[in-house]
Specification:
single chain; 191 residues; alpha/beta; six-stranded parallel sheet
Length: 191
């Protein structure tokens, strides 16, 4: 299924960070596939890409206290290499001057992201993890009036089953949220 996206749509590459790779307890098993899918989309969204980063809060509060009790390895400052973007995204953020939005929350939709993309944009979401930060961002953005397209082959879940369940949940929000299988399913309205 092809989806038409306007030429002013924004690519939001969610949390493509070292903490979700390698031997990290939060490593996503198919991270490389999601990164490759996102990388293929970068040229189409030159000048209209935002990278996001998940970081631990300085002082966890509320429900985050027991969360970080379970994951103490992640309680490092946001400048720690663990929270750095992986390549080619770190270089793209610098070389292309793509904005980076950093939040201590799963969902990235908020004042910082809105300041970059506007109040009612068309967002194309990719990244980590489908069942957490992508899902949280998609639903909050859609609730706020953004049009959201999620590119399945450029996202990865904690497991393949979790990835599919999250995609199925987001499909329930159509037409506010649309899920496409591949980045090649995106058609720019000017094409």
């Amino acid at each position: 299924m092809s989806v038409v996206v306007p030429p002013d749509a924004w690519l939001v590459a969610i949390d493509l960070q070292r903490i979700f790779t390698g031997d990290s307890p939060w490593a996503a098993p198919r991270y490389d596939a999601a990164a490759a899918g996102t990388g293929r989309l970068l040229p189409r969204f030159a000048g209209r890409t935002v990278f996001t980063r998940f970081v631990a809060p300085e002082r966890p509060e509320g429900a985050w206290v027991p969360y970080y009790r379970d994951w103490p390895f992640a309680l490092v400052p946001d400048g720690d290499p663990l929270y750095g973007l992986t390549e080619p995204f770190a270089s793209a953020a610098v070389d292309r001057r793509d904005p980076v939005v950093t939040e201590p929350t799963f969902g990235k939709w908020g004042t910082s992201l809105r300041a970059v993309v506007g109040d009612h944009p068309h967002l194309v979401l990719t990244g980590v993890s489908t069942d957490c930060c992508v899902l949280s961002t998609a639903l909050a953005a859609a609730d706020a009036g953004a049009t959201v397209t999620v590119v399945a082959d450029a996202c990865v879940g904690a497991t393949d089953a979790d990835h599919e369940r999250a995609l199925d949940a987001m499909r329930l929000y159509a037409p506010l949220v649309t899920v496409v299988d591949r980045g090649t399913d995106l058609v720019t309205s000017a094409e």
